[in-house]
Amino acid sequence: MAARPSSLRDENKARWTGLPVIRLSRRETRGSSLTCPRCGERLQSDRRLRRKLWCSGCRIVMDRDRVAAVNLARRGRVRLARSRPPIILEAQGRASEAMKGNLKPTVIPGVDALKLTQPTKS
Questions:
Q1: What percent of the chain has pLDDT over 90?
Q2: Which of 71, 75, 77, 87 is most buried by its number of CB atoms within 10 A?
Q3: Which of these, 58, 27, 62, 29, lies nearest to 41 by C-alpha position?
Q4: What values do phi and psi take at 99, rounded to 5?
Q5: Cα gap 7→5, rounded to integer Å
Q6: Residue 102: inside a domain, yes or no?
Q7: Does residue 3 lie within any of the structural domains?
C-alpha cells in the first residue's frame, strides 16, 4: 500500500503542470528492462555488472532501471498517440500566416530558417 500514495502524488504533480498521465497495464509493463531501447535485442545480464545489462547488438552497457524507464516512456507515448484525435493543420495555424494588420508574415529565425532571404548583390 506504500506505493499508492507516491503514485497518486506523482499523478497530481503531473496534472498540476499539465502533463498527461498514462497508466499502462501489467501486460504493457512486463519485460520493460529486457529489451534494448536502441535496437530491440534482448539484453544480457552479467554477475560482475550487477544492476547493469549489456546489448550484444549495440555493444553498450546500460543501467537496468534506465532501460526500463526509456522503454516504459516509449510505450506510454505509443498509447498516447493512439488515444489522441488526428491533428488538423488548418486548426493549428501556420508559421507563414500574417498577423492581423501586418501584411508581411512574421519570420521566426529558429523555426523559419528556410524563409530567411539574403539580399542578392546586383
A1: 20
A2: 71
A3: 58
A4: -70, 155
A5: 6
A6: no
A7: no
